[in-house]
Amino acid sequence: MKQSIHSISYFIIALVLIVAAKPADGQTYHAYVAAESDDEVYQIAYDVQTQKSIVTDVISVGQYPTETEGPHGINVGLDGKYWYLSIAHGNPYGWLYKFETATNKFVERTELGMFPASLEISKATGLLYVVNFNLHGDMKPSTVSVVDPQAMTVVKEIKTGIMPHGSRISDDGKYQYHVSMMTDELMQINTVTMELSRRLKLSEDENNSPQVKPTWADPHPKKNIVYVAGNGSDEIIEVDIKKWEILRRFKTGKAPYNLEVSNNGQYLVASYKGEAATGIWDLKSGKEVAKISNSRKVTHGVSITPDSKYAFVSVEGIGGQAGSVDIIDIEELERTDVIEVGKQAGGIIFWKKTRK
Q1: Is residue 19 part of a domain?
Q2: What is the CATH number of the domain that holds 299?
Q3: CA–CA separation, 311 vs 233, rounded Å?
Q4: Contact 314, 346 (CB under 8 A)
Q5: Does residue 187 lie in a domain region?
């Protein structure tokens, strides 16, 4: 009798281990990626079981058929019902567009500043914050536009540094972080007061010309830390946001451009724009655990799934070459699939996970 009980116990344990080892059947991850040179946004789906991706929709954006307007930054609203897109090139200003996720139908748009880029909605205020990169304008301080995403109206313009870029909001929604590329600074905006509350110099010398040329900032989901991509200095900079000082500098591949911290706080994934590669970093050790070659040159954006398992990486390509999205398994440290999208694939954001 004891042998039978033990046999059944071993069988159950073995079955549990087998089930745990298998990939989650029927799970599909969905994301949006903007093709900047085609004025299109691609909706894609990645099937975990087959490790294959498909394009589920292609949405034409913009209002001038004879011009390339350049969809750049993209994000999904807090309730998942709408997605928002910055159109970089305007006449002369850029735009914020709003679409339904269920149908991908256009809802409304509002005018922003020059060359609006990355954007996100605060959990604390419900307002959307988008940086105006001002790529083709004069070298002077630019702004962050604060938008009511329901009314689609700009409620405030916050003055910031020169060529602001790479913005993300803390998990509690209270602070927005972005970088000023031409002044080598990390900026903090208080989302409630809608004021620029702090700025931190990232360069190690007093040279007035930019050295770090930061392009992205992302807060850690569990710690009082922000990570910055030093595009000009080939490094990732770790900043303590309580002490407001630099903790560590990680030497990276060439020209890190975008980065994101996984939701479990364990990994940081960075796109190396000048190396056609993606780096995966273990944040506890501060070591790069993998550098994965991308499918095309000019790696751009990174979006990690909320379960911290996969990174969707947009790759621009060069010239008339199509762009692509590389799906990277963060746990296995390998690229599992590549899907071709429109030219100059850039802004990318995870949308949702579904089961068959």
Answers
A1: no
A2: 2.130.10.10
A3: 24
A4: yes
A5: yes
